[in-house]
């Protein structure tokens, strides 16, 4: 039951994020483009500071989420565990690693187990069920199987 609620929430967050970007983009293309660029440059400067977490996880075949997809992903991760939404760079790195597992054909249990291991650091501790929800969130946000 909880998976359905989170999946529905994820889907709604993705749809809202994407529709907000597309409607803003068609109305004011110049200002919409200018706003995401600072977010991207801020995001780009953060991985340089934390070289290990966000710079490494760009395996071949894994898409990089757009600004709108990141917004949907962050909302979904917050629904899974609010602590996952405190660091966008770490969350995107986790999502890209999870996407790599999905794209490589690993079974759901392994993908969930790896997500738990990668996300459970310091103050964040995920359950196996939350690992499954992370995988579902990643698929819904930017990494279809």
UniProtKB/TrEMBL annotation:
Keywords annotated in UniProt: Signal
Signal peptide start-end: 1-27
Keyword Signal: yes
Domain DUF732 stretches: 86-144
Renumbered residue ranges of the record's region Disordered: 22-64
Protein name: DUF732 domain-containing protein
UniProt source species: Kitasatospora camelliae
Keyword Cell division set for record: no
């Amino acid at each position: 039951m909880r998976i359905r609620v989170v999946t529905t929430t994820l889907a709604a967050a993705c749809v809202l994020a994407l529709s907000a970007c597309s409607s803003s983009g068609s109305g004011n293309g110049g200002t919409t483009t200018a706003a995401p660029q600072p977010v991207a440059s801020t995001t780009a400067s953060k991985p340089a500071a934390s070289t290990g977490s966000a710079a490494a996880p760009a395996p071949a075949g894994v898409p990089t989420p757009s600004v709108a997809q990141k917004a949907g992903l962050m909302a979904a991760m917050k629904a899974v565990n609010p602590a996952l939404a405190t660091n966008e760079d770490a969350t995107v790195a986790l999502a890209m690693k999870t996407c790599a597992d999905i794209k490589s054909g690993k079974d759901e249990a392994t993908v969930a187990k790896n997500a738990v291991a990668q996300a459970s650091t310091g103050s964040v501790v995920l359950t196996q069920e939350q690992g499954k929800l992370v995988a579902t969130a990643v698929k819904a946000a930017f990494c279809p199987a």
